[in-house]
Amino acid sequence: MSHHIGLNREINQLKQLLVRTAKEHKYNFGHPHVLEISQQLDRLIVKVMRYTR
Q1: Which domain holds residue 5?
Q2: Do residues 23 and 15 touch, judged by C-beta distance below 8 A?
Q3: What gap in Å lies between CA 52 and CA 23, rounded to an integer?
Q4: Which of 22, 19, 45, 46 is nearest to 33 (CA)?
Q5: Domain count within the chain
Q6: Residue ranges with strand state E in the chain
Q7: How far is CA 53 from CA 8, 10, 28, 48, in A?
Q8: One GO BP annotation here (predicted)?
Q9: pTM of the full predicted structure?
Q10: In terms of Cα–Cα distance, which of 38, 47, 40, 45 is closest to 19?
Q11: What is the DSSP letter of 52?
Q12: Assigned domain for 31 exists
């Protein structure tokens, strides 16, 4: 269970980073930094989804 909580915390931190980074790059969602963070977030979300099945 604590692993799940840690993943959720990491997801929330990445969400905040994604919002800040997207804003810094004028919401250019194709910018490499924005894409990189978005992909990291996607991987964590998939991990949580697999964990909760």
Answers
A1: 1-25
A2: no
A3: 32
A4: 22
A5: 1
A6: none
A7: 15, 19, 34, 9
A8: regulation of sporulation
A9: 0.88
A10: 38
A11: T
A12: no
